[in-house]
Specification:
CATH architecture of the largest domain: Alpha-Beta Barrel
Number of strands: 11
Strand order of the largest sheet: 1-2-3-4-5-6-8-9
Helix content: 25-40%
Family: Belongs to the nitronate monooxygenase family. NMO class I subfamily.
Cofactor: FMN
GO molecular function: nitronate monooxygenase activity; oxidoreductase activity, acting on the CH-CH group of donors
Largest sheet: 8 strands, parallel, barrel
CATH superfamily of the largest domain: Aldolase class I
Signal peptide: 1-25
Order of helices and strands: EHEHEHHHEHEHEEHEHEHEEHHH
Number of helices: 13
Catalytic activity: 3 propionate 3-nitronate + 3 O2 + H2O = 3 3-oxopropanoate + 2 nitrate + nitrite + H2O2 + 3 H(+)
Distance between the termini: 12 Å
Number of domains: 2
């Protein structure tokens, strides 16, 4: 038993942009693990629709929100990076936005909805909400969870009132949850980060990042995590909403490594190393969400064209263990022996 009140100490990490569907959440819950809906990149209405639909099948789930900036932004760097992408844009026949676009991802509106329509768990990534956010959600009965990547971030989250933490190691796929995206993120096993956080914080911990088999799950549980989150290993499952181009790339032997890069969205994220990343890694800038919106037309065109060499194929270091088939099979496999 864990604080998430599930049969199994396994969590389906929220994966914004399509993979985390209601169907995936339903199947994860049915398998005895804890599901998250990913509210990132969605309108309040879209988030509400998913919550309503999932609530008809389970009352034990979480919703994940992006915490808005402020983050560094330099207009000259933006213009320079846009110029560097011109050849790729021409290749796919798309126009990249000349004017930078900012967004808070409907932060206040989503919080208001979750206050008025409470869910069991609300988690946060990309930053640390103010203490009053935790107080407001606690008042309506929601358990609050913050994704952290360092002991210092864990201590700050505890001070502000988080009820639990996701400890994300740097080998996780997709975006790093770091509060400071411009910092250098050194490689380290999740076990090392988890151990360091446990030394300074006594909140319940969920470990995430680089999980590739049942032994990795057991190792993190034995080290003090109450649950282990997996994301990349669910991307090829039947119920995931992963796009076909991304899904096929994960099984393509042409791709042999992953890397952290800000070249796709302006925020560090781990992806399969492809031609786009090789070409633009050194030019990449820290500017989220401006770069996210800048490269969006190119990434959409690459996805439609079935061109993984120019797509943000998010993947953790354990991506080669990702299986196709029902998510139940992956969860059963990962929880063998615990």
């Amino acid at each position: 038993m864990n604080f998430l009140k599930t049969k199994l100490p396994l969590v389906a990490a929220p994966m914004a942009g399509g993979p985390s569907t209601v169907a995936l959440a339903r199947a994860v819950a049915a398998a005895g693990a804890f599901p998250f809906l990913a509210a990132g990149y969605k309108t309040v209405e879209a988030m509400a629709t998913e919550i309503t639909e999932l609530s008809q099948h389970t009352q034990n789930f979480g919703v994940n929100l992006f915490v808005p900036g402020p983050h560094p932004f330099n207009r000259e760097d933006y213009d320079s990076f846009r110029k560097a992408l011109a050849e790729d844009a021409t290749r796919f026949g798309v126009e990249l936005p000349a004017e930078p676009r900012d967004s808070d991802d409907f932060w206040k509106e989503k919080l208001r909805y979750l206050e008025e329509n409470p869910v069991p768990v609300v988690s946060f990534t990309f930053g640390l909400p103010s203490a009053d956010v935790f107080e407001r959600l606690r008042a309506v009965g929601s358990t609050t969870v913050v994704s952290v990547t360092t002991p210092a971030e864990a201590q700050a989250a505890a001070r502000n009132g988080a009820a639990a933490l996701v400890v994300q190691g740097p080998r996780a796929g997709g975006h790093s949850a770091t509060f400071t995206p411009a910092r250098t993120i050194d490689d380290a096993p999740t076990l090392e980060i988890l151990t360091a956080v446990r030394e300074v914080c006594d909140l319940p911990l969920i470990a995430a990042g680089g999980v590739d088999d049942p032994s990795a799950v057991k190792e993190l549980l034995d080290a003090g995590a109450q649950a282990v989150a997996v994301g990349t290993l669910l991307l090829r499952t039947d119920e995931a909403g992963t796009g076909a181009t991304h899904r096929e790339a994960l099984a393509n032997p042409r791709f042999t490594e992953t890397a952290l890069t800000s070249a796709f969205t302006g925020r560090p994220a781990r992806a399969l190393v492809n031609r786009y990343l090789e070409k633009h890694q050194q030019q990449a800038i820290i500017a989220y969400p401006q770069v996210h919106f800048l490269t969006q037309p190119l990434r959409k065109a690459a996805n439609t064209a079935g061109a993984p060499e120019y797509l943000h194929c998010w993947a953790g270091t354990g991506w080669q263990a990702a299986r196709s088939g029902p998510v139940q099979d992956t969860i059963t496999w990962l929880t063998e022996g615990i």
